[in-house]
Amino acid sequence: MQASFPPIRVQTAPIDDSALPSACGRFFDDIDEQAASLNGWNQRYIQLSAGTFRGSVQRLNVSGISLFIEDLQQTVHQTGMVRPDVVALGIPLHFSGNSRFCGKPGSVAELHVFSGTEGFEFHSPKRHVMLGIEIDRPVFADFFAADGAEQASAPALQAGLYPVEQNAADSLRAFGVALFRSAACRPAALDAAPENTWVHDTLLEKLMLMLETPMHAIGHGCHGARFLPLALERRARDLVLAQLDQPPSVAELCCCLGVSRRTLQNCIQTTWGMGPLAWVNTLRLNAVRSRLKTATSVTEAATEFGFWHFGHFSAGYHTLFGEPPSATLGRYRRSSPP
């Protein structure tokens, strides 16, 4: 049955308002129905603690990546096997009580990997809220593609607990929860192509940063071909500057340059001190600032460089330049000769 969702405390995530939104999702008072609600997981839930079962699942889909937030309000023993065409990961948002995952004590600070040929076993705590991430295998494999390789070679993750860099994990938590809040306020927003592309690339970038540690923990990593950061950065910059009104996505940049996503990430991080998404956005915002010298309105300047979501644009502009775009426009108007 449909219902609004109660507030949930999000542990360790740097979120100002920690109440999750009322979004599209389902409440459950039947444990078997909740277990069956995650399609392709082939799992079974057994309730262990006494009391009425309460649970909920919220879900979002973003081109090759599915997100869900699952809330369980009883201690549950879970067993299952995730379908092989996706990599399923979990980032705890809240634990209240003790847990064990694949035989090891779990905590809110660890990455839970559900995929693997042996399946998973999870003794969840009394209150358990998990941000689940399902990544299509081809998308996941792109993380580990060597430059110029026709096919990617991704490590065979097995179900278990893996250490993660906490700042990266907290950033992903915050972004995931913010997406569900946004979907609650604007249900159709993610259907818009520019928003969907931005969300997709942001999720991949945050996942890449968070997955760096677990990949090393199991003895795998991405060892792409050597590259010259400055030469590659110049080629990437030329591509972006040539189409600032509709900048290429990170995937499109990688395809045009013939490099892996990780290689491009390392290159831009080395030369600019930021990730590719922030870099592209910085170039566009600077272009808008220059255009405001001659534009008749902020809207004219922003839309010329592909900014369609004016709330995001204004906030990003203010953060970068220390003033709203209207202030920049007004200053240049006052200084223009009559």
The CATH architecture of the largest domain can be named as Sandwich
Number of helices: 11
Number of domains: 2
Q: Evaluate the radius of gyration.
A: 22 Å
Description:
The chain is an alpha+beta fold and 338 residues long. It has 2 domains: 25-193, Jelly Rolls, CATH 2.60.120; 229-335, Arc Repressor Mutant, subunit A (Orthogonal Bundle), CATH 1.10.10. Helices cover 41% and strands 19% of the residues. The chain contains 11 helices and 12 strands. The chain has helices at residues 31-37, 137-142, 166-185, 193-217, 229-241, 250-257, 261-272, 276-291, 298-304, 310-321, 325-335, and strands spanning 25-28, 43-47, 55-62, 65-72, 76-80, 86-96, 100-101, 104-105, 111-113, 120-123, 127-136, 160-162. The strands form 2 sheets. It has a 7-stranded antiparallel sheet. It has a 5-stranded antiparallel sheet with strand order 2-5-10-7-8. A hairpin with a 2-residue loop joins strand 3 and strand 4 (65-72).
